[in-house]
Amino acid sequence: MAHMATSSAPAPATALTVGFDLDMTLIDSRPGIRACYEALAERTGTYIDADLAVTRLGPPLAEELINWFPEERIEEMADLYRSMYPTIAITATPAMSGAREAVDAVHAAGGRAIVVTAKYEPNAKLHLEHLGIRPDELVGDLWAERKAEALREHGAGVYVGDHIGDVRGARKADALSVAVATGPCSVEELTTAGADVVLGDLTEFPGWLAEYDPSDPDGTYRPVRA
Predict the structure, then answer these.
(1) pTM for the whole thing?
(2) Which of 90, 103, 105, 153 is most exposed by smallest CB count within 10 Å?
(3) Using 50, 70 and 90 to split pLDDT, how confident is the model at 127?
């Protein structure tokens, strides 16, 4: 997997390119993140409600840490958390149902699959390698509208994610927003945020992709699932 190219010019819109979010889209990161927060709490002697924290995954780590640590310690705690993460969270984190098949479906259609995530990129790479999910590119440390930078760079016409922040990123990039209701946001929240398509989970993605017509700017709609 390569890093995002340094050129600011968008990639040419040739073959199909589909972007995927990571946490709660391709991977169920709740067990690993819960364990890592519990270890951080023990290490620092600071109370962290790990069960609550994993109900609001998606935004950058600092946005969760500010609930438990003073602002002047956020950078220090983020560095500590990230250093602990590989030994605690990687093996504890399973793939979401249909994750590998979704990426494989893009490749089978002759397209490119990229992962664009707010997660610290080295840890995101460890997750993908451990689970045998093989995108063509990985770009980390981007959240919400900033994800549009990578989506445009790689010419992604579709972005798949579980959070309203992913919807916002897709729309900023003028990509079709395909939402999956597997994270903290409900079908209603994803739809209201502007998702073009809402699927129950990634097991529905290959079927949707088989019917998707990239020449249709509005995409091919599938039924919204509860």
Answers:
(1) 0.89
(2) 90
(3) very high
Among candidate residues 132, 134, 175, the one with its CA nearest the CA of residue 156: 175
> Are 105 and 192 in the same domain?
yes
Distance CA 28, CA 12 (A): 32
- Domain contains 2: no
Domain range for 77: 30-89
What number is the average pLDDT over the span 48-54?
Answer: 98
Contacts of 173 (CB under 8 A, 6+ apart): 147, 148, 151, 152, 156, 159
Taking the CA of residue 201 as centre, how many other CA atoms within 13 Å lie in the half-sphere pointing to its CB? 14
- Examine the domain organization and report whether 148 and 185 are in the same domain: yes
Q: What's the total number of domains in the chain?
A: 2
Quick one: tokens of 162?
Answer: 């579980």
